[in-house]
Amino acid sequence: MLGTNDLKSRFNKSAKEIAKSLIGLADIILSSKGGKGGWHDENSPSVSIICPPILGEQTNNPEWNDEGWRNYGEWAGGYEKSRILADEIQLLYNEKNIHFINSNDFIRCSKIDPIHWDEEAHLVFGNSVADILSTEIF
Known about the structure:
Elements: H1 15-30, E1 48-51, E2 65-66, E3 69-70, H2 72-75, H3 78-93, E4 99-102, H4 119-137
Parallel strand pairs: 1-4
Antiparallel strand pairs: 2-3
Helix pairs in contact: 1-3
């Protein structure tokens, strides 16, 4: 799962640009010919892209201050981009041999820290992804 930090304002990337970067990385992996058979396998490996969850709405609050750090400016606009990132990835991954997992289907960012997850979300995420990967891909 990549993409959360790309939502930071300093990178000035749209959701579409972030999605294209993720698909580009998947293309590199698919062309590696490092499939299930080990070092000499000539088959493409399986690739899954996991879209990160939508940032918490607190990232839109100019008063957001986490442990003395002014975080609002760093994440300004990130909430809006995170809301459409899954759709942008889905538009592109359908053209490729890539499996897509939308973490928004089973977790949310913490209400206290709008970027990170609480303990329960980590547990749900791990179990959900393990279930998906073990039943849908392999």
